[in-house]
Fold:
Amino acid sequence: MPSIQHSARGHARREEIVRAAIEVIAERGYRGASLAAVAEKAGLSQQGLLHYFRSKEDLLIGVLQWRAETDTGGRDIVADPMSLAATQGVVEANAHREAIVRTFSALLGESVTGDHPAAEYFRIRYRRVREAMTATLRLEWGDRLPSGLTPEEAAPLVVAIMDGLQYQWLHEPESFDMPAAFKAFVRLLDPKAAP
Structure:
């Protein structure tokens, strides 16, 4: 029994560290964030943080995995695609998670440099997200959307819109309605859909 409690405490502590890292990265970007700053925000020594995450890169991957699990509920979204309504729900949830969206966007922007530790993660992630969105669109409309596009053609557009809307929202969170803009885009995919 003690090992189960220890494991649960360890998992909870890792999540606290990830949340602290999200705040620090949102403020400073990945390159400007230090393990010392994350440790301080989490109420740990740097050595204590290294007990849970071996390196800054390990912590970065932990942050990205946590965000992916939060968005999908831990499910395989390619094998078990989300509905379009659930995807809209993710966009709506993101409108209330500025630090997470800011961290993700900062990491995404920084990762386009070849030497960034998250570059490979984002390459794989985008392949998976396009596959998942293809499955979502196929679930919604079959092999052809009402607009005439195939799910394979529309999927990268939907992903680009979602990410682009996040960037616009981060610049003007009080005046830009990200969920409404995404719903308007979905209506472009299916002009006959109710508003």
